[in-house]
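Each record in this resource describes a single protein on a pair of labelled lines. The shape at a given residue is found from the number at the same position. The record below illustrates this layout:

***
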Amino acid sequence: MNLKLLNTDIQTYITENLNVDVSKLILKGSDFEGVDHKLIIEQIEAKKRCKKKLPTWFSNKNIYYPNKLNIEQTSSELTASYKANLVSGKTLIDITGGFGVDCYYFSKQIDTVTHCEINTKLSKIVKHNYKTLNANNIKSIANDGLETLEALNQSFDWIYIDPSRRDDIKNKVFLLTDCQPNIKNILGLLFIYSKNVMLKTSPLLDISATLKDLKYVKEIHCIAVNNEMKELLWVLQKDYNEAIEVKTINIQKNSSQTFNFLCKEEGLKEAFHSKASNYIYEPNSAILKSGAFNILSNKLNIYKLHKHSHLYTSDALIEFPGRRFSIDTIIPYNKKEFLKLKVTKANITIRNFPLSVNDIRKKLKIKDGGDIYLFFTTNNENKRVILKCSKL
């Protein structure tokens, strides 16, 4: 850490240049004594990425930022806050601490939080920032988390782990066996020191396949923000062998959409199927990730258009964890019928349809945008149809 970066004049320069083209700043250079201009550029790039993702850090003075890769890999404040509401007790240890956003929010629920980060430089940065943020119940340790866990030799109410999803040559990976540390190899060790383990994984991870490899799963949380899948959380409890609950949440600006079910229910239920009626529903990304296709139909008493379409319909409008539309027109998929609609601009969604959105736009000459929504899909009679809709 170069603490001169926190000098008032340099901090002012960083703030004033957040929206300036970085390439121009590099060419221009600076005259701040004792500080490499590259470090200042690094601070600008990292802080800029925090404006929406980490507003608490962004809005506080004297925050020291790591490189932008660390910012990319860290949890957002929205998802960190969600995770914090899942834990309680007196002690928690994060054995893969990173930039420390999760620990900051855990510290609002847990009496004493231990943050472990093997990268000494990053650990110093996090320790400084915790002091700036008055997070005084977090202890930062610059060491390997597993080694620290064994060295401390104490019981914790919770262990949190977010394995690194970068391989030896910095390529992105997501399978548990490719991440470091490999949770499958260390789970027995973790349960020596805690009965409760929370695991964060990539949203790309296949849930069904992972359940075959991972023991003692109690809950799976599919977390989306503004309909973009961000995280899969796995809550593990020592010796747990009962029903697994899947909880989906789509965090939005003014509200959140939730839908919960037992994992075994999906395989035991059959969805209801029907032609499109008055309203069409598109599940949010958290539900799509969870695979709650049959149980969604059963619990909400709505119909699927087709087994593989993942679009739902009903006669009467209902509350729904996703987007809702009123159906204006239903036509068979062919160019002649489509031209009768006189639609030249629309938002297009495909579900169980052989063409891509780009192919459809080129073939039917449809520009992007506007207030018209077109769903290209397959109905329960295996016929390709176009649904012209209005968003509710």
